[in-house]
Amino acid sequence: MSAVSFASEPGVENRDEINTNNSQINFNKYEKEGSETYKDDIRNDKVFLKRKTIDTDSDRIETFSTSKFYTDSTQKYYIVQFDGIIKQKWKQQLENKVVNIINYIPNNAYLVKMDGSTKSGIEQMENVQWVGVFKPAYKISDQISNSEKASVNVTINIFKSSNISPVVEKVEKLNGSILQKYRNSLNVVIDKKNISQIAELNQISYIQQYTEPTLLNNKARQITNVSYVETCYNLNGDGQVIAVADSGIDSGADNETMHPDLNGSFKDIINYAGSDAADHNGHGTHVTGTVTGNGSARGAAPKSDIVFQALGDDDGNLTADINIYRLFSEAYNKSARIHTNSWGFVSELNDYGEHAKSVDEFMWDHKDMLILFAAGNEGDTEDNESISRPSTAKNCLTVGATENNRSSMGYSSDDVDEIAYFSSRGPTNDSRIKPDVVAPGTNILSTKANITSAENDYTYMSGTSMATPHVAGTASLVRQYYMDNLSVTPSASLIKTTLINGAYDITPVRYGDLQTQPNYVQGWGRLDVEKSIKSIQKGNIYYSDGVKLNTREVAETKIYVNNSSNPLKVTIGWTDYPGESYSSKALINDLDLTVIGPNGTDYYGNSEVVTSGHDRTNNIEEIDIMNPDTGVYTIKVDGYNVPQNPQPFSMVISGSIEKVKISSIEISPQNPTIYDNQTVLFNADIYDKNGNKINETVYWSSNNTTVGTINSTGYFTANVSGTANITANKDGTSNSTTVTVEKQPPELTNINVTPLDPIIYTNQTLDFDANTTDQYGNEVDVNVNWSVGNDSVGNINDTGTFTPNKTGITNITAKNGSIKDVTNITVKEIPYLDYANITVNSTRINANQSSIIPIDNPDLKFSLLTKDQYGDPYSFEPEWYSNNTTVGTINQSTGVFEINDTGLTKIYWTNSTNDTITGDTIENNITFDIQERKFDAIKITNVVSEFRPGNTHDFNATPVDQFGDGYEVIVNWTSSNLDVGTINNSTGVFNAVNTGSTNITAKNGSINNTFTIDVVKDEVESSTDSSSSGSSGSGGGAGGGNTGEEYENIKEELVQQEYVNYGEQVSYEFRTKENKIKRVQFEAKKTAGKVETRIEVLKDKSALVDENAPDKVYQNMNIWVGKAGFNNNIKNASIDFDVEKSWIEENDINESTIKMCRYHDDKWNKLQTQKLTENETVIKYRANTPGFSPFAITGENINKQDINTNSEDSELDGSNHTSINDNQTTKTANNTTMQSSGNGDVIGIGAWDMSWLILAIISIVVSISIYIKKRGT
């Protein structure tokens, strides 16, 4: 067997190349050009669901609200249909709009998850045909809707990304019984009337009728030629691992108790249902013997290793609890790459449901595992459409049964070319071909389970159950051949395609005028492994595996048929992306097979079952030409519609074929001469040994890429002068020619006019210049013609001199032939001085007010800022003057002012050059007063207002003059209350003595500065302080890690320390994943040094509280700041926290109801909470809090009725938490009193609460009265 690889010429981008052996056929892979359009036979106005085919033309855009159908989530599921085959860029645009694509739905649609705001943007996309809600009615199968039973047994399927918990809660609320819980589904018994309520849940994808799995019950080796390939090619399954899932296996242990034909064959035995893996039915033992038996009734692969998965219980029945994906995963993890299953579900025949989807999903995820299923035994000669589930899956190999060659046992096994009467027939509900192949299934002799009967080692059984393991064993032989002889590890689709390509067309006579294969009875024919393996051995069959295609990509190859007496058969297969149980069409990625004969005839895949054009239904396509003309055939695989891209495929070609042998290549033009920077297109004509022209693509190359380069299509681009050899190569045959590149003669290529966009005045002229260069950048001596665009503005002569006529703008052009350059010139009026302003190099002088400067100030430098009428700088030389030369003198030209004495002076300037000045003469001046320095004030630079007894502090005093500069005088210090504190008269060192207040004064003469300081007691921690006791405390923890919380309840503990200084904002940052609190912050009312904040992230509610927080709790925690009573030292406290969006969605939380709750005064109080921002995963909030204690983050379910929670959103603005512990009272809108608890948690009393309060007070009064009466007091 030779490898077919889809490859390209070396160096060409976006091509796949596979070289598996020396007999490779090269396949070109390319994308169709925009002008090469498809014949689009997909209806763009239909979306195919099982419950309804939606006509999207009747309602172009659905505009109704999804709340009509769903109330439990902010994000909903929608169907988005495009107006044609989906292009990759359309899909990318959809994903860029933060849309979660669930899967493709035929035709041209995706099921997506998005919110309403995103939906409006999707509707505006250019190529979107229609957007509609995925309605609850679409999720309920017809079998359930049509059922007359009051109670139904159903399978509820859940979207992968969804949380199953709300579904469980809903089922239990509706009194449903959950029988089994799987990865993404539930088996439930529930009243039929409640099904619609389940379907309304956003998490639900599809609800279908539940059914339990059923078992689908040797000359077969000779009929399928297994014996031949074992003898001739030593193919016996050696090194292959096959998984068998069935009722059980003989004794259940791989030891001397096992059937002698099977003992030692097991890699592993896994029990799923019964007390052990023993076979209480006999079915599994018979099936396993058909696979690998090595005795008298020899299996197809006697040297293979078996992973057996026992699904039967102790009564011989299959378990209902089959998680198909897990079943395959466990076998795969034990190295099984063939998996055979002779069981299925016989309700909802021909349907593509969740089980079939799981098969396809696993094979898409594990493309090297071939899974086989028996088609079922529900067949009837007069009735098709009886395929059991999950053999309706696209990717598995579905096996039907033919008759055996045991005429002595009756009519059911007397014609090997007949279908067994019981074998299930297709098509599936979406018209796919099933079964894929057939094999002997009547009166099959194989191993018998000793546990069922002690007599004999073998027994006869009939059914597709018997045909399927035989095909599984044969598949392992094909896999063995690829691995041992071709060093190739084949994909599941390659093994499947190889078996189908070699299948024999039996065309059963009892079906009258039934067409040849493929058809819905035999699929692609009866298994014939000799034809597959023998053809490989002869070398006239080719294969390809794993080439990937996107939409509009094409893989193409050519073969040569040298003998028309043998059929030409081309088969492709691909493991398709899993479909959806709610869709009425299973195929997702659609590839097209086309073969073009030597005479130009087009052949399409599966033309026997497709009335015209290409197959739009199956993921196996075959073209069978019985008597092909000799010559070259072109084979194409077209990525017609690949919405879940890319799609790999496998191909097998058989017949009297060989690679197209190239004899010669002719290149044109021969030996051309071109100039540098020019291009020339080379063509290559390819001829075979008979002189026939072959339409193939060559690989072009240049031996001198400095001179020029050539691309894949033959375009040569010259770079520099020189010569290069151009070679065209195809499969080792080549030809060359020479291209000569010469330098082009110089010619004018560029004119550059200078100056660029000049500005002149009406009294000026300007000379333009034109720089002329050739293509090499050298100057060229040529004349240019000058012209002006608007001669009323000015004129230009032949030499480029421009003379203005008036103000305005015009263009100037220099031109020679077709080469030119253009610039603009602006003519303005003659400028004049329009603005002047005095500036000075001293910050002490303000031009807009009287200023003072010291007499010892350095010289001042005055300047004049001038502008013309256009706002441009104006060159002007003013003369400077001072009106008081006694105070100082100024240099008339430089503007430098020298200070001589104290006093007032004015600086001004005059126009000495007769420059034109607009309007009135511009005048401005600066007046300032020169003064001697004098002592003016005392500044205290380090005031501290609060001390503890025993504290000392060194105060600093700075005397300054009237200019704010330092002044040297002696400062004396005094304290007004020596009992509170003393201060050193000269040094300013203060000693705090007792508590109280004192005024500190710094003084020199009549100038002084006085401030007040307080001496207060140290804060003392008190265990009896009511402000820190239990959960009723106003905040701080007990300190030292002893908070009173139970150790077992603490999930994570975080501690941060920060310095707390009076008047500063203090922030504690926390960044661990488990902790949802990200920041604790407050404003300090006192300096307290280093203060510790401790967060205890809890597993459950705090041990310090009596009840759970209201609503749905996201996180419980304790937050402690400082020691007991520390809350008195802070204000404006807040807590920043994160809430994950996944929790909000999974629990159907209304994000606007998320609050931080604080436990205080023996009850939960909701704090004022605001949303800050959000990203893809979390929403960030901030809650204002009057103190620190146990907390909980909570939120309300969307469906929860509004409840009057009077304590919600406590108002923590400046009016009621400036002093955190002050009792405050405020009025609500309805004049109900809102009383603070003393810690800032506001407690509201509504009208209903007031009634209860009055009753409580009356009850207390009555009780007290009775008590007093009894005491006689």
UniProtKB/TrEMBL annotation:
GO biological process per UniProt: proteolysis
Transmembrane segments: 1250-1268
CDD domains (alphabetical): Peptidases_S8_Kp43_protease
Superkingdom assignment: Archaea
Gene3D superfamilies per record: 2.60.120.380, 2.60.40.1080, Peptidase S8/S53 domain
BIG2 domain mapped to chain residues: 661-740, 747-826, 934-1016
GO molecular function: serine-type endopeptidase activity
Pfam families named in the record: Big_2 (PF02368), Peptidase_S8 (PF00082)
Region (Disordered): 1-20, 1019-1045, 1204-1236
InterPro entries the UniProt entry points to: Big_2 (IPR003343), Invasin/intimin_cell_adhesion (IPR008964), Peptidase_S8/S53_dom (IPR000209), Peptidase_S8/S53_dom_sf (IPR036852), Peptidase_S8/S53_subtilisin (IPR051048), Peptidase_S8_His-AS (IPR022398), Peptidase_S8_Ser-AS (IPR023828), Peptidase_S8_subtilisin-rel (IPR015500)
Compositionally biased intervals (Gly residues): 1032-1043
Key words, A-Z: Hydrolase, Membrane, Protease, Serine protease, Transmembrane, Transmembrane helix
Residues at the catalytic site: D246, H283, S465
Similarity remark: Belongs to the peptidase S8 family.
PANTHER family: CELL WALL-ASSOCIATED PROTEASE (PTHR43399:SF4), SUBTILISIN-RELATED (PTHR43399)
The protein's name: Peptidase S8 and S53 subtilisin kexin sedolisin
